Amino acid sequence: MRWRQWLGSNRLTRDQREQDIEREIRADLELEADEYRDAGMTVQDARHAAERAFGNRTLVREEIGAIWGTPSLDVLLQDVRYAVRTMRRAPGFAAIAAGSSALGIGACTMIFAVLNFALLTPLPVENPYRLMSLSELRNGGANDFSYPDFQDVRQARSFEGMAAVRTLVAASIGHAGDPQRHWGSLVTANYFAVVKPAFALGRGFDPAHDDTRGAARVIVLSSDLWRQRFGADQGIVGRSVSINRGPPR
Amino acid sequence: MRKDESARISLLQGTLDMLILRTLRAGPAHGHEIAKHIQRTTEDVLQVEHGSLYPALHRLERRGWVSSRWEIAKGRNREFKYYRLTPAGRKQLAREGSKWKQLTDAIARIMWPAEET
Questions:
Q1: Residue B79 contacts residue A84 (beta carbons within 8 Å)
Q2: How far apart, in whole angstroms, are the C-alpha atoms of residue B61 and residue A68?
Q3: Is this complex scored with an ipTM above 0.90?
Q4: Are the CB atoms for A208 and A193 separated by under 8 Å?
Q5: Which letter, b or e, does each residue of A186-211 get, where b requires 16 or more Cβ atoms within 10 Å of its Cβ?
Q6: Percentage of residues in chain B with pLDDT exceeding 90?
Q7: pTM beyond cutoff 0.80
Q8: CA-to-CA distance for B98 and A245, rounded, in angstroms?
Q9: Do A30 and B62 touch (CB under 8 A)?
Q10: Hey, are the CB atoms on B31 and A20 less than 8 Å from each other?
């Protein structure tokens, strides 16, 4: 019964509702006029008399429109009360129903979160399925490579390319005389040539120029940092900032 | 045909809704029929203003106590919006009816005490 009430005449659009009301009033007026005519009035007089008897049509139309227009809180309350009463009558069933819903929703959410992270959103790099990370197993745990080991492995040419990363390095980046600490990674100059991430602006490092002693230090900003700290400045590429109070380059 | 003004009684708030539901217990009817029925049954003591009849019908429909459908009237080739009582409306009518019974009985006991009649 309840859903029919929601889906039934509540389904009418605003225009349909107005037409429905207008049609209903017109039908009433015609019937009333017929009666006056049967009582001996002329067609014209009967119509006027019917309209007079009905009263202010605009007012009635507006009143009915308001009845349907405002969301009826008491109908909603009735539904809530009905639901609560039903649940109270069978608390065990209600608890089991709520419990299984909660479990189901929880499980689905968790599975989706994992799937989303692992499968649906691949790393934003050119070829995420051919990218892997290497670490050294020592003392029963994964450890970082030493730099000489890294150089040895790189020379073996088992991979198309190989870059080294040292994550979670803190650096102070000074911009407009305001140094702030950010977390970043130190990477070898070929890092971007190997990983091939998507760039919003500019390029990564150039091994030919950037990998030489004494060359200017170069940083690549993450998208988040670029937005937060530099206001997503489109002309940022080539700008100098100071790193760890070093000379602004 | 109509009684003079002094003989008419204006409807108390909420009474019209109950009278409409009671009228529909006999079967589906459109607005005009409902108004005519109430007037005729009370020998024109109760006049149903159409200005309050139609909003009341829509209010009842919104609350789920009546449902409506456009249908062709018997013996005419014209469509009217027929209202019918829903099961929820039937229950509401029973509730309202017993409330009114209690009220009128209580008033009657004070106005016309048993020993005087």
A1: no
A2: 10
A3: no
A4: no
A5: ebbbbbbbbbbeeeeeeebbeeeeee
A6: 50
A7: no
A8: 88
A9: no
A10: no
Helix (H) or strand (E) holding A54: helix A43-54
Kindly determine whether residue B31 and residue A23, on different chains, have CB atoms separated by under 8 Å: no
The beta-carbon contacts of A214-217 under 8 Å, at least 24 apart in sequence, are A216/A249, A217/A243, A217/A246, A217/A249
What band does B8 get if pLDDT is binned at 50, 70 and 90?
low
Question: CB-CB: which of A23, A30, A56 is closest to B51?
Answer: A56
| Candidate from B32, B59, B87 with C-beta closest to A1 | B87
Chain A CB contacts of B51 under 8 Å are 54-56, 59-60
Which residues in chain A are closer than 8 Å to B34, comparing Cβ atoms? none
| Confidence class for position A71, pLDDT limits 50, 70, 90 | low
Cβ A127 vs Cβ A196: under 8 Å: yes
Q: What number of C-beta contacts closer than 8 Å exist between A and B?
A: 63
Q: A41 vs A6, which has greater pLDDT?
A: A41
Selecting from A9, A60, A74 the residue whose C-beta is nearest the C-beta of B61 gives: A9
pLDDT of residue A5: 46
